[in-house]
Amino acid sequence: MSDQSLAELFPELDAFLPCATPDEWIAQALKNQDILLVDHANCEKKAASTALNLMYRYTEHFDLLNKMSRLAREELRHFEQVLTLIKKRDIPYKPLSASRYAGALRKHVRTWEPARMVDTLIIGAYIEARSCERFHKLAPYLDDELKKFYLSLLKSEGRHFKDYLTLADSISEDSIEERVAFFAEVEREAIESVDDEFRFHSGVPAAA
């Protein structure tokens, strides 16, 4: 799997993302693998929490309930796996401030329904797609254990992306193309602009 490009593995996901992760971020990640793993664990917890929040908020959507229930279980399993790696590597699991990434996307969520739900689902698709892309791009540079783990996450992250996008499309009263394009530019800005803090979803390192 590592020998295949993201476009070969997940063509729809690759086309969905507005840009590739900058090489400067990869270099920073390799220098800060402790922070990478701790923030990765936090991201898995947040992903599970987001799925559960959607389940509580939108109880009338049975397809959403089923997909988010499965997604939450998978994200918590991933959290447990990252936690095992953190413990094995004797990395302190200390609090980290959140990345600006998700907040930059979520501040544009519309406030009325079902637009609010549609935007939240589209943002979920971007978060999962970017995670998948970064796992894939990082993997060749990592030690064998971490490389194997990150490559093992690609299939589920790719499915989560598809689930979020499919739900947004099925729930929206109108075509989601305009909103997808809007959030693509927000996402591009978050990824390509200079970022003062290194996190799993941060932008170009300020020190680069």
Automatic annotation (TrEMBL):
The cross-references to Pfam families, in alphabetical order and at most eight, read: MiaE
Q: Which CDD domains match?
A: MiaE
The coiled-coil segments of this chain are none
A GO biological-process term? tRNA modification
Q: Which InterPro entries match?
A: Ferritin-like (IPR012347), Ferritin-like_SF (IPR009078), tRNA-Hydrxlase_MiaE (IPR010386)
Alphabetized GO MF terms: tRNA 2-(methylsulfanyl)-N(6)-isopentenyladenosine(37) hydroxylase activity
Recorded protein name is tRNA hydroxylase
Highest classification ranks of the organism = Bacteria, Pseudomonadati, Pseudomonadota, Gammaproteobacteria, Oceanospirillales
